[in-house]
Amino acid sequence: QVQLVDSGGGLVQAGGSLRLSCTTSGRTFSSFAMAWFRQAPGKEREFVAAISWSGGSTAYADSVKGRFTISRDNAKNTANLQMNSLKPGDTAVYYCAARDFTVGRRVYEYTYWGQGNQVTVSS
Questions:
Q1: Is 101 in contact with 52 (CB distance < 8 Å)?
Q2: Which residue, among 86, 89, 74, has the nearest Cα to 24 in the 3D structure?
Q3: Taking phi first (over 0 means left), then psi (-120 to 50 degrees means alpha), and beta for anything else, what does residue 9 get?
Q4: What H or E segment, with its residue span, contains residue 8?
Q5: What is the pLDDT of residues 73-104, one digit of tens each?
Q6: pLDDT per residue over 29-56, tens digit each?
């Protein structure tokens, strides 16, 4: 049984930084593409960033490009999302997700999901 455990998040002032992490169990980590989505109150879940199984391909939402960096360490079964220059508009619950090998940008493309972590950016 595949499980994703995501951690990190919290409260930060605008302009600050946070780091989210996600670990998997139940299947070889390097067979997964990993991603983060976020969902703000009253809004649909939206794509944030994704990284392919090897780390050779990444994708970002336009709203976070240049501020967020997704990475992975296959030896540690961990993916990370470094979030810099945070804005109040980044406030949401952030979910890590996994799918087979290649990056995707759609919620329905991802099979496995973490429990989510709250990120709150104050102005």
A1: yes
A2: 74
A3: left
A4: strand 3-8
A5: 999 999 999 999 999 999 999 999 999 889 99
A6: 888 999 999 999 999 999 999 999 999 9
